[in-house]
Structures are given as C-alpha cells and as structure tokens.
Design goal:
The complex is a heterodimer of chains A (about 1000) and B (about 425).
Chain A: H1 2-14, E1 27-36, E2 39-45, H2 49-55, E3 62-63, E4 70-71, E5 84-87, E6 95-99, E7 109-113, H3 125-132, H4 152-161, E8 177-189, H5 193-204, E9 209-212, E10 228-229, E11 232-233, H6 234-247, E12 251-254, E13 257-263, E14 267-273, E15 289-301, E16 305-307, E17 320-322, H7 323-333, E18 340-345, H8 351-359, E19 363-369, H9 377-384, E20 389-390, E21 393-399, E22 406-411, E23 424-427, E24 430-434, E25 437-439, H10 442-446, E26 452-454, E27 459-461, E28 469-471, H11 481-498, E29 538-540, E30 545-546, H12 547-555, H13 561-568, H14 581-592, H15 596-599, E31 611-612, H16 613-617, H17 634-639, E32 643-647, E33 650-655, H18 663-676, E34 679-682, E35 687-692, H19 696-703, E36 716-722, E37 728-738, E38 741-746, H20 751-764, E39 772-775, E40 780-786, H21 790-795, E41 813-818, E42 821-826, E43 835-841, H22 845-856, E44 862-863, H23 866-875, H24 911-914, E45 925-932, E46 944-945, E47 959-967, E48 972-980, E49 989-993, E50 999-1005
Parallel strand pairs in A: 1-7, 8-9, 8-15, 9-12, 15-28, 17-24, 18-19, 18-24, 19-20, 34-44
Antiparallel strand pairs in A: 1-2, 3-4, 5-6, 5-7, 10-11, 13-14, 14-15, 16-25, 21-22, 22-23, 26-27, 29-30, 32-33, 34-40, 35-38, 35-39, 36-37, 37-38, 40-43, 41-42, 42-43, 45-48, 45-50, 46-47, 47-48, 49-50
Chain B: H1 6-14, E1 35-38, H2 42-55, E2 60-63, H3 72-75, E3 79-80, H4 87-100, H5 103-107, E4 118-122, H6 125-140, E5 146-149, H7 150-156, E6 172-176, E7 180-181, H8 184-197, E8 201-203, E9 208-214, E10 217-223, E11 226-229, E12 232-235, H9 241-248, E13 255-264, E14 274-277, E15 282-286, E16 292-298, H10 310-323, E17 331-342, E18 349-352, E19 358-362, H11 372-385, H12 399-402, H13 409-412
Parallel strand pairs in B: 1-2, 1-12, 2-8, 4-14, 12-19
Antiparallel strand pairs in B: 3-7, 4-6, 5-6, 9-10, 10-11, 13-16, 13-17, 14-15, 15-16, 18-19
Classes of the chains: A alpha+beta (about 1000), B alpha/beta (about 425).
The structure holds flavin-adenine dinucleotide.
Flavin-adenine dinucleotide binds near residues 76 and 208 of chain B.
Chain lengths: ~1000, ~425
C-alpha cells in the first residue's frame, strides 16, 4: 500500500508541471482527479481532458491509425484529429472516440488511449508502421492481398484486427435520452462575438431566439482572447451580454449543444450533452443527452473559423500544434504545453501565440514567418519583446520522435514553392503553426450549398443560401473583432426586417483593431526533396494522409477531388477533415496545376461532430421501440397463461397452454373444443373502419373487387381488395349499418395500410365521392364465439336479439344488448362453425368476456388463440392474406373468382391489372389443398413443391406450401399451397424436398378439407 | 496495363511510388463509337469492361456527368448476396455472385469482396415462414442458404440482443454465408481500369442531355461537349433514368426516391457479418476500417436531391439500438443519401426500348450494388447481340404490360 501511495504522491509532484500559477478560466480551488491509461492525474474544474493532460506534461495520447506513429494533442476544439479517447469507468458506460479537447474534466473521469500495443508510449505496431510504411501508400490494399483468391478472408481478418479507434461497450447503455421540438424566429448557431451580437439584436427586437454553442460557456474565441470590448476584457463583456439574453422569456440559450445537422426547410438538429461533464453515468432521473429538433424561420450561422495548420515534414510529432490552440491552452486553461516554442506563420494573427507564450514566462525561440517582409502592430510588439523573427522562411522538417527536439528552418521563395537556403535547426520542444483560417462552412454545406473559394480571405465561404440562412462573422470571411460584432448586428437586422419586427437599438461597443499586413497563401511547405521523396508531410493526421499520398493519387488519375478523398481517405475521420481538407484540396490542385477554385471541395455532411446513436433514437428504443397494442381482455389472457404472438403491433394470444401441455396439445384441445361445443377468440385486433356518407357504397364498389350495390342494412359481405396490379392485398367482411353507413373489417396487420389506401384513393382520385373514414379498431372489442353451442350460449346473455336461425341468418348482423351492454352481433364465421362476433365498446369488453365464461362453463367454453384459429380456418380452406397470398396472387388464383364483380358499372381497383395477358395464363400458381401420402406427416410451411425431386439442380419448382397444420378434427395434416396450374391438377402427386434432406410426397386436392357444403355454419 | 501485386508494391516503394501508371486515361471524346454507355457508375463501367473483354467490342465510350462511380455506387452500403426468391431474380443475382467470387483476380484489383455472411433476422411467425420459403427455393435453385434457430443466431452474432425482452424478439434467421460486402469504390475503379486498358474511353464531367434518333432508330447522344454518334447506346443512369427515358421519348414505371445511409465512428471489431431485419427495419455491418455501416428503407417521397429526411435517420437508429443495445453509446459520424430508381416489383429493367438501338439498364433501386458484375455482364451481352441475354429476358419492360412481374418486395425487404 505504502509504495502505491508514495508513487502516487510522487506523480502528483511532477503533475501539472505545465500549469501556470495564474490566469485562465479554471478554478484552482477545485482540483479534480482523473485517470489516463491507468495512472491518476489531477486537473482543475474548468479544464478539458486535453488541457489537464497537457498540464500534466503528457505528450503522447495515442498512435496513428495506419503507421502507428506517436501523436500528441494538436488542437483545442472540435477540429482535434489526434486526441481520441476511450472514456468510461464501468463496462456499461464506455464511450468510444471522445475528443479530449471537448470533454470537460470531472472528478473520477477514466480515460484511455485507443491505439497502441502494449501501450501508446511504446507501441510495437509502430515498428511495422516504420518498416511497412513505405509499402502502404494510399490504396495499397487495392493492389495486393488478391492472390490466391481463397486467402483474402484471412488477410482481411488481420486487417480488421487493426481497425477502429475506441470500442463499443459490451453491456447495455444504462442512460436515457430525450428529444424536444422547437419553433423559433431566429436560430443563432455559435455564441462567439458575431453570434452573441446577432442573438442580442434579434432578442431586443422581440424575436423568439435560440442560440446554441457547442462549448460549455458562451463566448467562442473571446474565451481565450486578449481583446477588450467596450473597455472590458472580452470575457467580461460576454458575461454582460449573456445576462441580458437570459432575461428574455423567448430566448433559449443552449450551451454544450452542437448544431450537428442542417436539413431542408430550415430544420436543424441540436445535440445537447446534459451530463457528460458531470459524471460517467447520468444522474438518476436525468437524461444524458437531448436532441433538439428545430424549425427556424431564419438561421444565422456564426460558426467562426478553424485555424489551418501548415503541412511540413514530420509535422505530426508530439509538440506540433495549432498556434491558436497553444494560445487557448495558455489563456483559457493556464497551461503552457512546452518550454521552448518555435512559431511558424503565414499571417499576423498567430503572433499573438508567441506573445502569450512569452508572457507566460517561457522561451520563444523564434517566429518563422513565411512572408519576406511582415509588418504590423503584433509584429512590432513581438520585436519589442525581443523575440527573434525569421522572415521569408519556413520550418520544413522536424527533429524528434516522441516529442519535438528541433525545427529545421530554411528560407523559401516568395510564393512558397521552393526552399532557397541551407538549414538551421532551432532547438525547441513545441512548434506552433498557422496557415490562416478556414471558415466553418460545414452546416451550410449540409443544405446542398456548395462553398465558394474566396482568394481574398484564402478560404472557402458558404455558397448561395438555399434556405432562409444568413451568415455572421468569420464563417463567411469577415474578420477583425469590430467588423465581426457589426456583422452579427447586420445579420440579425436582416432577419428582423424579414420578420417584420421593429429594429431595436443596438450600439456597437468599441474595440481595438491592430494594423495587420496581408497573409500569404501557403498550403504546402516545400522540402528540399520533392513531395514523393520528402519525409511524411501530414495533411490529415487522423487518417495518416500525406501530401505525398495526395500527389500519388492525382498521378494515378484520381483527379476529381472526390476521387482524391476516397482514394486517400482524406477527411473520412471522426474530425471529417476539419483541419486537413483545405490543405489537401490545395495540394491536389497544385499537383495537377490547377487552382483551388477549379478543383473545388468535397461536400461536408451531417454530423458536424459525432452524435450518440442513443440520442438520435431517444426514447424510441427498448420497450418503447414500437407501441405495444393490447386488447381490453389482455389482462385475462395473461392470467390464463396465454402465450402471445406479435401480429402487427398487437400482442395476440397464440394459444393457452394448461399445466403440462405442449403447444401441440393445447392447439389440439382448443381446436376440438370449438368443433365439439364452443370456443371463444379475442378478435378485437382486426382492423375496423367506419365508413359514412352518400358516396360510401360506390366507394366500396370501386375499392373491393366484388359488388356492393345491393347489400341491405343488416347484412354483411366478404370482400377482397386488390392493388392496381390486380393482386390481392387485404380482405375482410364489411357490414351495412345504414344506407350510407358501413363498417369495414380488415386484417390485423393490414389495418393502417388499408386506411391509408382508402384515403389515398379518395383524396387523390375520387374526391367527388362524399365519404368519410374513421378508424374504430380500438373503440370496439370483438368477442368471437364459435361452435355448435354458440347460439345457446349467446341466448343466455341477450334478450333483445332474436337468434332464430331463420331470422338472424348467416351473414346478418343485429344490434341489441349482450350481457347488459349495447352490442353489435355479426353472424359470420372464420371457422366454418356456427359463430357470432360480438362487438361491444372496448370498455365493456372484459365484462362481456367474463360473463360469457360464467355462462359458458357448462358448455366447456374454451378460449382459443391465433394458432387454433389458423387450424380451423385451414380445415375450411379459408385464406389468410399475407400468408396464402404474397402480392402476386389474383382472386382467380385463389379460386375466388366468385368475389370479383363482373358487371360493375364503374371499374374497380385491380380489374385492368388482373386482365393482363400474364394474369390470365393457364398455368399460373393457384391455391389448392395438399394431403400428404403419409397421413402422419405435416408439411412444413414454406416448403417448395416439385414434380421430380431427383431433377438435378436447379430443380424446376411448382410453387410452395403456404399454410400447413395438423388437424385434430380430421386426424391428419392439412395444407394449402400455391401450385402452377394447381386447380387443374387435382389428384396429382407432388414432392417437397426439404432442407433437412427429407422428401415428402403429397397429393393435390381441394383446399376445403372439412364440411365442403358449409352445413355446419347453417344451423 | 500495369499488373498489381504485393511484389509490385515493394518494387514501387523503392522508387518512392513515382512510377505508378494512371489508372485510366482522360481521353477527348471521338466523333463516333460502336457503343456508348451513358452513366459511369459500377453498372455502366462493368458493362463496358465485359463488352471489351467478352465480346471484343472496344470502340466504346462511357459518358459520365460527374466522376466515375460517384452516383449510388459511391453511396451504397455494399451488401452483396444472391438469396432472392423468384427463379428469374435468383438466377440473375447468383450469376453476379459467381462473378464476385473471383472478381479481384479477374480485374487484378482488390475489390475486397468479403463473404462474411448475410443474416436476415426473423422476428415473427410470418418471418419464419417466409424464411423457410426462401431457403427452400434457394436450395432448389442451387444457391446455398440456411435457416438458423434463435440459439444459433445468438451464438453467431454475440452483440445482437436475442433476449425475450426485445420488443420483437429474434426467433431465427436465414443466413447466406457466401454473401457479404465489398469495397464499392474499388469495384468502380477496378472495372474502369480494366475497361480503359482494353481501349474503352472513359469520359468524365460530360453529361448526356439528349438522344438523337431518326425514324425511331438511335444515332447517338447529345452531350455537354457536343454530339457523339453510336449505333448502340446503353443507358445505365440509376436514379436519373426516368429523366433519361423522357429525353428519349418514353416513360418508365420508375419512382426516384432518396435512400440514406450512415456510419458510426470507427470502433474496434464487434460485428463480423451483415445483419438485416425487415421487421425491426434496419441493417448493419462493420467495415474493415471499423465503422458501423447502417441503413434502412427509402424516404417515402420522390425527389432528386441526394439527401433525405432526418426522421428516417431517427427510425433507422432506433432500430439499430433496439437490435444492438450495446451500440447505444457509439456515435454516428456521417450520413448521406443517394437517389434510387425503384420499380413496382422491386426488380430491375434490362431492356430494349421503343427506340431501336437504345437499351436501358435501370430500376435496381435499393439493391443493385450486389448485381454490379452480373448486370454489366448480361447487359454487355445484350448490347453486343442487340438482343436480351437469357438471364435478362424476364426483366424486359414489357412485363409491366403483360403482368409478368417478379415481385421481390419480400426479398428486397429492408432494401438491399
Ligand atoms: C444509401 C444506399 C445504400 C445502398 N445499399 C446497397 C447495398 O447494401 N447493396 C446493394 O446491392 N445495393 C445498394 N444500394 C443500391 C446500389 O447503390 C445501386 O443499385 C447501384 O449502385 C446502381 O449502380 P449504377 O451503376 O446503376 O448507378 P450509379 O452508381 O448511380 O451510376 C449512375 C451514373 O450515371 C450518371 N448519370 C446520370 N445521368 C447522366 C447523364 N445524363 N449523363 C451522364 N451520366 C449520367 C451518374 O452521375 C452516375 O454516376 C444502395 C443505394 C443507396 C443510395
């Protein structure tokens, strides 16, 4: 124990060696412990994981994907390519690929690097990377691993082993996620100076505003800026604006909220992380993340710009960083990520980094400016501080492996295309580079607007707006604090005017603008060797894409920028090329002798930064994935121990096993009970559509294949529905409730589809028919009693419905009272037995059901499920649409030509389709019965039927078994099948060769196995 | 053509990879070709390759409005399988499957066809029944396919939730073990390189804007770079085929819909097969790079914008999280969409047209990537002989008049 603790305290001593004693937006009174690769470290409240690691002097945070090179933290925000971590203290809370630069530190955070074996510091894979690196140019895998053919799966196994960054948890996510919908007048994306001014202006005008920013605090670049606004330090000014915004009722401020996708019609999604900064697992009763789905009248993009790094040899060695990131770490987190800095820049802005470094009390070795003659306020300031300035030069190479040791500096020509002097090696441990700024045009790209190259700002800006979209600030190339603030106001004023609100008073605060000299366009730092021979000059750090790789791609003919991207994998990482893409495109253009504008850019797509699957799914997963629908009698079924079947969204009783019964036993018992006495089925799930209006009857005529003109009130009729192609897609009984009033029943699974079908035809084709459809499926419980004793049973529960067989006939319905509640009773049958379908309001369903059992005990009233229902209907040859049909079956194929009206005045859906040449062919597949030669055998459903099972493969097939059951009432199997020309092949033998090797012989017969004359239901 | 091999790589490494040849030329279009293929997607390029290789017709141009393979070929989720239900479709896709097996060697380009197995989950009795039907039909057609019970599924796909607590518990699955995935770009590039080497002109950034015909006979195509003549034209333009047919003066029973897909960030291998569910409605595989590659159904509306609606993404991801609760904390990196040309019977159209000499190959909808070599192969034969290849015959556009549809909605299911 003591050794462990002493080790710990020792490590704590060296801990935070890079932390400044003053400054930054961190709380030094609130230390937080966290672990990285099994070691414990300390940081402060306000840190990100990245700033805390840098504070502790951790150089290597992972290994690169392809070459296993050591990598360090490179940036400070969403553009970070290297610092990709595995987070999570428990198995269930693992999160792969978290960017350390965006993860706020909390006490107890557990992190690990994702690549490197045995660890990121000493990675054995790197030897392979070093040795094999030369043999792994882009696309190398297309050119090898091909021979012999059989080996690819083996090669692939090894390739896959090296795949991926972090890992998925092995246990289920314990957290929940929410969604919210919003409408607003103005959505401001980004809360930097431009966004804040835009939001303020819109808010003062009384607009409904949402302003979202991915960071934990509003302020954007101001959080680490040295500027003053209106005489206040920038961060103080931000506080004032935020306080005012918070006062407006109609302004929603979202921090830790990334606008990740911009879709058509100004629909945007915002991914808010509510608890990732607090704990590993969300606190109880709090969702971990939330997706905001926003419809905005106007969108103001104020997403700023990312600094572009420079591309030089070995620019990936830990210690190479973005200039602005270095400033951010110093100013915002009080961390100086090294001791000796060399800054390379193409512009004035980055000088601030050298100033910050110097003011932090550490050594600036030199500023290497690629411009021959830089002048400007910041340059003067650097000179005054005595910093060495090397103009007209560049860092062309880096010395060092696991950390920068030196910067190889040479002078270059005015266009930056070649090295013009010998080298000087500057000893240093940090190289910060700046190649200027790339506007964050990602969101505008999502809408399909192609970015446009702007030579003046040396960057792409959003193309013409496809939506009601405005831009403010750096996102469209407006730089300089004063101009940015003004631009924010302007954008909002445009929106305010369009919204017809009054323009509010907004005064622009004063700012100080240093005089700047023009920047130089430089996307590739020349080396003494040509691109193909220079040491690796990385463009996309995450995917190990080099300038040489891009040059190779264009040399091989991949000239479209999309081809370059795909061949090299540039921009395919989790950072989606935020840092590398522009340099890469410029290098591609350069190697082809074209301009960047000609080469163009690839398209950014959602997401701006990755979004948790769970957050997109929200609550619509697990038991809420899809609604479960239960009938009013569900509780009873559960109590009786029913097994359930999923039919559509419904849970239907499948069978009701008694103690010790198998499914087979239960189904046999249920089936016999119905035929011998009486059974009861919960048929409430069948779709029910109430159809009313003077056009109702004609509508039915057109939608069903059979005729409805003469159906009287009190009568029911079975009907088939076909799509235009003449193929059956639903069936059911429709009853005439009144002259202009019908009740249609549909299959359980087809109900919603039929409803849509009716509406589609009514609304788009036959609007002249006055007819109204209402889904009433859930309003009614349907209790089907079936069997010879069903009339006797029903008689005990109704006094006002005359059940006499000659007055209440088959296919009649009556209204009355059953078990004391109002009911509609339909005398229809799906079993072939005397049957009544009792419909009562759903609330009464259970009551009536229980009453039936009270009275039914003496008749052995037996509940039966869907399986028995299937057996009974199959004994009778009744079809189930979707089982005995599959979208390729006409009514005639089903031998149900009787259900097709021949003389309907108007046509009906499917009529033309079913008359096509192929649909009236003789040897179409037709529905027939099958009896196995061995009566003890039950054919498996789905078995294919052939004439000659010995025929060599491919064996010509006749059709397949659609339904098949053991019939306890007949003592043998009964099956239905669709067979080519089946109706004219009665008595023929066919064979079912099964996948288990058996071959079953069966005889084609009528599909009606029991009571062919229908006498049992006519009693 | 420069041969590719591991040895070649080593040799080129010594010369700093400076001597790799171009994959294909960038030719100026000639005035006239024997055959013009409109559309440089996988199908068009494969057609050109087989025309040259198997029929000796090399005076061929492929005309592509954008970049080679930049349409659905570049956007699809690369599932390859041949377990289709109806004989006509099964034989066509199986023809393609056989070409996949050996394609890398034939093209001397590694298309990374990985037969890691394609599972179709069954969640209802209906699914099981349809699964049995499919497996039996496939076996009799000589296409291996298996039915697994739920315990086997649980063993073979450990990350999948096979528990009873799922909203739609897994009851079994069919698996075509020869099925799998391939590298989409490599397929386009491999065929392109092969065709170019045999003399085919691949003409990029050139759009066909009309078909010139006289008396119902094709004479060539109007393009953004002028007229190019050919007595035989094959149009292979996927989601744009309805527009192209209109240019030629007839209509096709196609609907163009957005179809979306998405990928996660790359993660360590957790899934070594393709899992599809029609019922829960989503599918997923894991790429060699580690991304989970995910898709589901089309967006319901018609359109040509190559992006879809967010609600489809929401449904897709809730299906994936439902099937794989362990993926809930994984993050979605990128989404995109392509425009697919869907047919009423979910089968393609490979057909002569009312214009003599003009042929169309389209309607592959959500699932044509797997057919790339087969489609190109039979279409090449069709163009060479000006008469439908026997496997293509049932897919003629006449079938919408005769009613001889091949309804593959069941097998197409959740697309792909
Ligand atoms: C998201 C998504 C996922 C998919 N997943 C799968 C899957 O997993 N498995 C599967 O098998 N299939 C899948 N598919 C379907 C598959 O991508 C397509 O069926 C197949 O790629 C079609 O290939 P193609 O060559 O015909 O079309 P494309 O690759 O689209 O090629 C057509 C080409 O024609 C060009 N073109 C169009 N009009 C003109 C003109 N006027 N002039 C010149 N050129 C023109 C286009 O630019 C395009 O390059 C998916 C599709 C999408 C969108």
């Amino acid at each position: 124990m003591s050794t462990v603790s002493s080790k710990k305290s020792a490590s704590r001593k060296v801990a935070q060696s890079n932390r400044l004693t003053r400054g930054g937006r961190i709380n030094r009174n609130k230390p937080l412990k966290f672990s990285y690769n099994g070691k414990t470290y300390e940081g402060f409240e306000g840190d990100t994981l990245a700033s805390a690691l840098l504070a502790n002097g951790v150089d290597i945070i992972g290994r690169s994907f392809k070459y296993s090179r050591p990598r360090g933290i490179f940036a400070a925000g969403a553009e970070e390519p290297n610092a990709i971590m595995q987070l999570g203290a428990t198995e269930a809370t693992q999160i792969p690929n978290v960017r350390a630069t965006q993860q706020e530190l909390f006490d107890g955070l557990v992190s690990n690097s994702v690549n490197g074996w045995p660890n990121a510091d000493t990675d054995l894979m790197s030897y392979i990377g070093k040795a094999g690196g030369k043999m792994m140019p882009p696309g190398f895998y297309y050119k090898t691993f091909m021979y012999p053919e059989s080996m690819w799966m083996t090669y692939e196994k090894y390739i896959r082993k090296a795949a991926g960054l972090g890992r998925a948890p092995a246990e289920w996510d314990p957290d929940t996620y929410d969604k919210m919908n919003h409408h607003c007048d103005v959505l401001v994306v980004g809360a930097g100076p431009a966004g804040l001014m835009a939001a303020l202006t819109a808010a003062r005008a009384g607009a409904r505003v949402i302003i979202a920013d991915e960071q934990q605090e509003f302020g954007g670049s101001l959080l680490h800026s040295a500027d003053t606004i209106g005489g206040l330090p920038a961060a103080e000014w931000v506080k004032g604006i935020v306080t005012e915004l918070q006062r407006y009722e109609d302004v929603l401020l979202l921090s830790r909220a990334t606008v990740n996708g911009y879709h058509d019609h100004n629909f945007l999604t915002i991914h808010e992380r509510r608890t990732d900064h607090l704990t590993d697992r969300a606190p109880l009763n709090m969702s971990r993340q939330r997706m905001h789905k926003v419809r905005a009248e106007w969108v103001i993009l104020a997403t700023g710009a990312h600094e572009r790094p420079l591309v030089y040899a070995n620019n990936d060695v830990p210690g190479n960083m973005l200039a602005s990131a270095v400033s951010t770490y110093i100013r915002r987190y009080g961390v100086v990520p090294g001791n000796k800095l060399v800054l390379m820049t193409t512009n004035d802005d980055a000088y601030q980094t050298a100033l910050d470094w110097k003011l932090a009390g550490r050594d600036v070795v030199a500023i290497v400016d690629t411009r021959a003659n830089p002048t400007g306020a910041l340059i003067e300031e650097a000179r005054k501080l005595g910093i060495r300035l090397i103009p007209g030069s560049a860092v062309i190479d880096v010395e060092g492996g696991k950390r920068v040791h030196g910067a190889v500096c040479c002078s270059i020509d005015a266009t930056g295309s070649k090295v013009t002097s010998g080298k000087e090696v500057l000893t240093c441990d940090t190289i910060a580079s700046s190649g200027g700024w790339s506007p964050v045009v990602h969101l505008s790209c999502h809408t399909g607007s192609r970015p446009v190259w702007n030579d003046e700002i040396i960057g792409f800006v959003p193309g013409a707006a496809k939506e009601q979209r405005l831009c403010a600030g750096a996102v469209h190339g407006v730089y300089g604090l004063g101009k940015v603030l003004e631009d924010g106001v302007n954008a909002a004023q445009q929106a305010v005017a369009a919204l017809k609100l009054n323009q509010p008073e907004v005064e622009l605060p004063s700012t100080f603008e240093p005089v700047k000299s023009p920047a130089m366009a430089l996307f590739y730092v020349p080396h003494v060797k040509p691109v193909s021979r220079a040491p690796k000059q990385f463009v996309d750090l995450q995917n190990d894409v080099t300038a040489g790789g891009i040059a190779l791609a264009t040399r091989e003919g991949f000239e479209s920028i999309e081809h370059v991207k795909r061949y090299t994998a540039m921009g395919f990482g989790t950072d989606q090329g935020k840092l590398g893409n522009i340099n890469g495109m410029a290098i591609a253009a350069m190697t082809m002798g074209k301009t960047i504008a000609e080469t163009g850019t690839t398209i950014f797509r959602p997401n701006y930064t990755p979004v948790t699957f769970g957050a997109v799914a929200g609550r619509d997963a697990g038991h809420l994935f899809d609604v479960k629908r239960f009938t009013a009698m569900h509780k009873w079924h559960v109590e009786q121990g029913a097994e359930f079947e999923d039919v559509g969204q419904w849970k239907r009783p499948w069978y009701y096993p008694k103690a010790g019964e198998s499914m087979h036993d239960a189904v046999n018992r249920e089936s016999k009970a119905v035929r011998d006495s009486v059974g009861i089925l919960d048929a409430s799930t069948l779709g029910k559509i109430d159809i009313q209006g003077p056009g109702a009857r004609e509508f039915l005529n057109r939608i069903y294949t059979n005729a409805w003109a003469k159906l009287d009130v009190g009568k029911c009729r079975y009907g088939l529905m076909c799509h235009e192609d003449g193929m059956v897609f639903d069936d059911g009984v429709t009853s005439c409730l009144g002259d202009n009033h019908f009740l249609m029943t549909t299959t359980t699974g087809g109900a919603a589809g039929v409803m849509e079908w009716l509406e589609l035809w009514h609304q788009t084709e036959w609007p002249e028919l006055e007819v109204y459809f209402t889904s009433v499926t859930d309003h009614w419980s349907t209790l089907t009693i079936s069997g010879p004793n069903s009339r006797k049973l029903l008689a005990e529960l109704t006094s006002d419905i005359d059940l006499d067989k000659d007055t209440f006939k088959f296919m009649d319905w009556r209204a009355g009272t059953v078990a004391g509640v109002p009911a509609r009773v339909f005398r229809i049958s799906f079993t072939g037995e005397l049957s009544y379908e009792i419909n009562v309001q759903a609330n009464y369903g259970l009551h009536v059901w229980e009453k039936l059992f009270e009275h039914g005990a003496k008749y052995n009233l037996t509940p039966y499920g869907t399986e028995t229902m299937h057996v009974l209907r199959a004994e009778k040859g009744f079809i189930i649409v979707g089982q005995d049909t599959d979208g390729s079956v006409t009514p005639f194929d089903l031998n149900m030509g009787w259900a097709v009206g021949k003389n309907k005045p108007f046509s009906f859906l499917g009529q033309r389709g079913m008359q096509r040449e192929d649909c009236v062919r003789d040897n179409r597949k037709q529905l027939v019965g099958l009896k196995c030669s061995d009566s003890s055998v039950v054919l498996p459903e789905g078995a294919q039927l052939v004439d000659n099972p010995k025929h060599p493969v491919p064996v010509p097939m006749l059709g397949h078994v659609t339904s098949s059951y053991y019939s306890p009432n007949l003592g043998h199997g009964v099956a239905m099948a669709l067979i080519k020309g089946g109706l004219s092949r009665m008595g023929d033998k066919v064979y079912a060769p099964l996948r288990d090797g058996r071959v079953i012989e069966a005889e084609i017969c009528s599909s009606v196995f029991l009571d062919p004359k229908g006498e049992r239901q006519n009693v | 053509m420069q041969r590719f091999s591991g040895f070649g790589l080593a040799k080129h490494a010594l010369s700093h990879h400076e001597n790799w040849q171009r994959m294909w030329r960038n030719p100026t279009p000639k005035k006239e070709y024997d055959v013009i293929i409109v559309g440089g997607g996988g199908h068009g390029l494969a057609t050109a390759y087989y025309l040259a290789k198997e029929h000796g017709i090399t005076n061929v141009a492929v005309i592509e409005k954008g970049w080679l393979g930049g349409g659905n070929t570049a956007r699809n989720t690369t599932i390859v399988r041949s377990n289709y239900l109806w004989d006509e479709a099964a034989h066509l896709y199986e023809h393609s499957m056989k070409l996949w097996e050996g394609l890398s060697q034939d093209l001397n380009y590694n298309v990374m066809f990985s037969s890691r197995g394609v599972y179709h989950l069954c969640h209802t009795l209906h699914d099981l029944r349809e699964g049995e039907r499919l497996v039996h039909a496939n076996l009799l057609n000589g296409i291996p396919n298996e039915m697994l019970d739920k315990d086997q599924v649980a063993r073979e796909i450990p990350a999948l939730n096979c528990g009873k607590n799922a909203r739609y518990p897994v009851m079994g699955a069919t698996v075509q073990r020869r099925g799998g995935v391939a590298r989409h770009d490599a397929v386009a590039w491999g065929f392109a390189r092969g065709a170019d080497a045999l003399g085919v002109d691949l003409i990029q950034q050139t759009e066909v804007i009309g078909f010139r015909q006289s008396n119902g006979v094709i004479e060539g195509v109007e393009t953004t770079r002028g007229f190019i003549a050919a007595p035989v034209v094959g149009c292979v333009t996927a989601g744009n085929s309805g527009v192209m047919a209109q240019q030629a003066g007839f209509r096709l029973p196609l609907e163009s819909h957005p179809l979306q897909a998405l990928v996660s960030e790359p993660i360590k291998p957790v899934l070594d097969c393709v899992v599809m569910s029609n019922h829960v409605h989503g599918y997923v595989s894991q790429s060699d790079k580690g991304d989970l590659v995910i898709g589901a159904g089309i967006d319901g509306y018609n359109g040509y914008g190559q992006r879809g609606s967010y609600n489809t993404i929401e449904h897709t991801l809730s299906a994936i999280v439902e099937m794989f609760p362990v993926f809930s904390r994984v993050r979605m990196n990128r989404q995109w969409g392509g425009i697919v040309d869907t047919c009423p019977d979910a089968c393609p159209i490979i057909s002569a047209t009312p214009v003599k000499g003009l042929f169309f190959n389209c309607g592959w909808g959500t699932g044509g990537f797997k057919a790339t070599p087969g489609s190109g192969n039979v279409f090449a034969a069709t163009l060479a002989k000006r008469e439908a290849h026997p496997l293509a015959k049932p897919f003629s556009m006449d079938r919408f008049y005769s009613g001889a549809l091949i309804d593959e909605h069941g097998a197409a299911g959740v697309a792909h």
